[in-house]
Design a protein that fits this description.
GO terms for molecular function: transmembrane signaling receptor activity. Pfam families: HAMP (PF00672), MCPsignal (PF00015). Keywords: Coiled coil, Membrane, Transducer, Transmembrane, Transmembrane helix. The chain has 8 helices and 2 strands. The chain folds into 2 domains: 208 residues, Up-down Bundle (f41 fragment of flagellin, N-terminal domain); 294 residues, Orthogonal Bundle (Helix Hairpins), CATH 1.10.287. The chain has 543 residues and is mostly helical. Helix 1 packs antiparallel against helix 2, helix 2 packs antiparallel against helix 3 and helix 4 packs parallel to helix 7. The protein is rod-shaped. Strands 1-2 form a two-stranded antiparallel sheet. Helix content is 84%, strand content 1%.
């Protein structure tokens, strides 16, 4: 059965599989966005971590600068080493303020890019530290120009040490400030990811709820209608699910099934009424045939008695020629009546046979329609099994989705339960149709047996008619030969014996015909009972 729904109206009109796929795509895209956001945040944190590393290295370079100044005064290092330390010290401080590429470590050509300081407080501290670096370099150069025994040497050295302490404290504040800034960014990142997760979860729940409602609501309508049909109510309205997905196809198939059940129920009721009417007519004809058969048997009995009397009076046949002639004429008249009765019986038997054949044809037509119902039930059963398989696949997909697919797993389970209940309903309807089919098959067999009985009765009637014709001809010949009776008494006696035997045969045939008529009457009664049972079974469905 093909679907006629060809009106897609947006994504909500797509197939169920497409809607389920959209849920997965939504969560994949959301997860990708969260991963991208996290990756960008991690890269930013790496830059902040490198800045904290360079801030710490500035404190180390400050100490190294003081140590190298003292070593240079003692002649234990070179001016080039001191200048290299100063260059790295100044360059790193400048890049911390303005941003740019900075040398990763001393003695290495590897460089990395860091951003400029954005926080105003940290920027102010870094600029102050840069001024302190320049001041420290000036004081160190002044100290290098003085001799250790010079009076100014101790003063400059003291100033350099005090400046070093100030710079150490300021460097510690810078390191703490950058560390706190990094912690604030991490907290902001965590808050942002939690917010995004909540938004994505809420959107996913709403999206899944909308799709599940789009699927479950029409399925609930199908279930309610199927339950009403199972209870025998065919007066329900059509579903009319204006959808292009599998649920819409199921609803359209269900509407077609409802129309077919209504039509079939009405047809079965009409056929049942016709069968009852035809059965009553055939039964009446059969009863008339039985009465005619009894009359035929009585007539044959009378003819037999008469022939016996003729046989007994054979020795006096000469003296009673007139009496024998009168008896022969009475026998001829009785034979004519017997022929008329047999011909009437033949006509009645032919009518019975034709009516039984019509009943058989109607029952066969009824059987074919019940088979069509069975095919429709099989189609609904196949759809239920496919729905069950789709629900099972959906459960598997939901299980693979983990916690995010748990809600959809419940929906898939409900779909599978609905499919199983629809399948159980089709099994119950199939069982009822099977019982109806069995009753119809029994009716067909009884009708065929009735046809055979009718044909057999007709054949026996034809034999009886032929025999009566022969008897009548014999009686006429007897009347014409009355003038020769005296000379042919012996031969006439033999002829009377043959006639008596023929009468006995006719009586037996009439009795057999009566038995066949009784069997046909019983078969018609059984057919009437089966028709009533079929009408009772169909009456469960209210059209």
């Amino acid at each position: 059965m093909s679907s006629t729904i060809t009106k897609p109206r947006g994504w909500m009109w797509g197939r169920v599989a497409t809607k389920i796929t959209l849920i997965s795509v939504f969560f994949v895209v959301a997860l990708g966005a969260i991963i991208w956001f996290t990756a960008e945040a991690v890269n930013a944190q790496e830059n902040d971590a490198r800045i904290i590393q360079f801030v710490g290295r500035q404190r180390m370079l400050q100490k190294q600068h003081v140590i190298e100044v003292l070593l240079l005064m003692q002649g234990k290092t070179t001016r080039a080493a001191l200048d290299e330390t100063r260059a790295l010290w100044r360059d790193t401080q400048d890049k911390l303020i303005n941003g740019g590429e900075v040398q990763v470590r001393m003695g290495s050509t590897e460089r990395t890019r860091i951003p400029a300081a954005a926080d105003p407080v940290l920027l102010s501290r870094l600029e102050k530290q840069r001024d302190n670096i320049e001041e420290a370099i000036k004081k160190a150069d002044a100290l290098l120009k003085l001799a250790p025994e010079s009076p100014e040497y101790a003063v400059v050295l003291q100033e350099l040490q005090e400046l070093d302490e100030v710079m150490q404290a300021l460097g510690s504040e810078n390191a703490h400030g950058f560390t706190q800034l990094l912690l604030d960014k991490i907290n902001d990142l965590v808050d942002a990811e939690v917010t995004i997760g909540i938004i994505v979860s809420a959107a996913g729940f709403l999206f899944g709820w909308i799709i599940s409602r789009e699927i479950s609501k029409p399925l609930q309508q199908v279930v309610r209608s199927a339950q009403a049909i199972a209870e025998g109510n065919l007066r329900i309205d059509k579903l009319n699910l204006d959808r292009a997905d599998e649920v819409g196809m199921l609803g359209e198939a269900f509407d077609h099934m409802l129309d077919n059940l209504k039509g079939l129920s009405g047809q079965i009721a009409g056929v049942t009424e016709n069968v009852n009417s035809a059965t009553a007519e055939i039964l009446a004809s059969t009863q008339q045939q039985a009465a005619s058969t009894r009359e035929q048997a009585a007539t044959v009995q009378e003819v037999t008695t008469t022939m016996q009397e003729i046989t007994q009076s054979g020795t006096e046949i000469t003296d009673r020629v007139k009496q024998v002639a009168a008896s022969a004429e009475a026998a001829s008249t009785a034979s004519s009546s017997g022929i008329a009765a047999v011909q009437n019986t033949n006509r009645l038997m032919e009518n019975v046979r034709q009516q039984v054949e019509e009943v058989a044809l109607k029952i066969v037509s009824l059987s074919e329609k019940t088979q069509v119902i069975g095919e429709i039930i099989n189609t609904v059963n196949d759809i239920a099994e496919q729905s069950n398989l789709l629900a099972l696949n959906a459960s598997i997909e939901a299980a693979s989705a983990g916690e995010q697919g748990s809600r959809f797993s419940v929906v898939a389970g409900e779909m599978r339960n609905l499919a199983e209940r629809a399948k159980e309903s089709t099994v119950q309807v199939s069982s009822i149709l099977s019982d109806i089919q069995k009753g119809i098959n029994s009716s067909v067999m009884l009708a065929e047996e009735a046809v055979k009985r009718s044909e057999s009765g007709k054949h026996q009637s034809e034999v009886a008619e032929k025999t009566i014709h022969q008897m009548m001809q014999t009686t006429v010949d007897s009347i014409n030969a009355f003038q020769q009776i005296i000379g042919a008494t012996s031969q006439q006696q033999i002829g009377f014996d043959q006639v008596a035997q023929g009468m006995r045969d006719i009586r037996m045939a009439a009795e057999q015909n009566a038995v066949g008529t009784g069997q046909l009457e019983q078969a018609l009664s059984n057919l009437n009972v089966l028709s009533s049972q079929l009408r009772l079974a169909v009456s469960r469905y209210q059209v």
